[in-house]
Design goal:
Elements (H helix, E strand, L loop, with lengths): L1 H8 L9 E5 L4 E10 L2 E9 L3 H4 L4 E9 L5 E6 L1 H19 L6 E5 L3 H10 L7 E5 L3 H11 L2 E2 L3 H5 L4 E4 L18 E4 L18 E4 L2 H7 L1 H6 L3 E4 H6 L10 E4 L4 H15 L1
Parallel strand pairs: 6-7, 6-9, 7-8, 9-10, 10-13, 11-12, 11-13
Antiparallel strand pairs: 1-2, 2-3, 3-4, 4-5
Helix pairs in contact: 3-4, 3-10
Length: 276
């Protein structure tokens, strides 16, 4: 994912902003995400149905089709749900490693679903946390997540966040679940859950930070956290990864993750290379 992010920001990997087709009669949306990544190109077709959580189904479902960039030949079709789950958390881990000091010790996770699990696993690979707290709007889910992963369930979002060095928001909420007044001055935030110009997980106060994104163009069109707060983007994460000397110069940093096709196609190419 680090190579994919650098490749995108340097222009070596190409993609348009995803096309979104709303499905309001069923409370979901359908997205098409094409990209050209070296010897492969492809597209992820992804759906997001928040109501699936109540149906016992994943909220995100996807299929990825790979092609040869040289000839246009189809190479493979594969399920995209697990790839989406893992690459999203891997990108957050890359950003966390680049944007935080090695000494951070306390992690707060808002949300207790699939992405909460994948983020906990991925972030533990880049930082050593002494304490991890989790909160969910459904307390039973937070308690179950805490028990299964050896972390602590918090009674409220505020109790989860107060004093934390790093915060991850991985909810399906369309309204803010993280308030800036809860964050300590040097806190770092991976904002992952809200995709769409009208959806947000962070309030205006939380967005008073150095904002780092995967793609400026996508952020300007797809991030309600940024659009509704009127926040300015400081840098793409790929730019900061390529120039390791560059600093945000800010006490608080928010990495707003939206997900990109180059991440999916790069991950799918890894799978294809492994098993072909």
């Amino acid at each position: 994912m680090e190579r994919a992010l650098i490749g995108f920001s340097s222009g070596l990997l190409r993609q348009p902003v995803r096309t979104i087709l709303p499905v309001p009669e069923h409370g979901g949306w359908f997205g098409a995400m094409p990209a050209v990544c070296g010897y492969t190109m492809g597209a992820k077709l992804v759906t997001f149905y928040p109501g699936n959580a109540e149906r016992g189904l994943p909220t995100h479902l996807a299929t990825i089709q790979l092609f040869s960039a040289a000839t246009g030949e189809p190479l493979a079709a594969m399920d995209g749900r697990l790839i989406t789950e893992l690459r999203t958390a891997a990108v957050s881990a890359v950003a966390t490693r680049r944007l935080t000091a090695p000494g951070i010790r306390t992690l707060a996770i808002l949300g207790a679903g699939v992405q909460a699990r994948s983020h906990l696993e991925a972030l533990r690979m880049v930082r050593d946390f002494d304490e991890v707290r989790v909160w969910s709007r459904t307390p039973e889910r937070a308690i179950r997540f805490a028990r299964e992963n050896g972390v602590r369930a918090a009674a409220s979002a505020e109790a989860c966040v107060r004093g934390a060095d790093a915060v991850v928001t991985v909810t399906s909420s369309a309204e803010p679940v993280l308030r800036g007044e809860w964050l300590r001055p040097g806190a770092y935030v991976n904002a992952v859950g809200a995709v769409g110009p009208a959806r947000r997980e962070l309030d205006d106060a939380a967005m008073q930070a150095a904002i780092v994104v995967e793609s400026r163009e996508a952020a300007a069109q797809e991030s309600g956290d940024i659009i509704l707060a009127g926040a300015a983007v400081h840098a793409e994460i790929g730019e900061l990864l390529e120039d390791t000397r560059k600093s945000t110069g800010a006490a608080r940093i928010v990495f707003k993750s939206l997900g990109m096709a180059v991440e999916d196609i790069t991950a799918a190419a890894l799978v294809y290379d492994k098993f072909r």
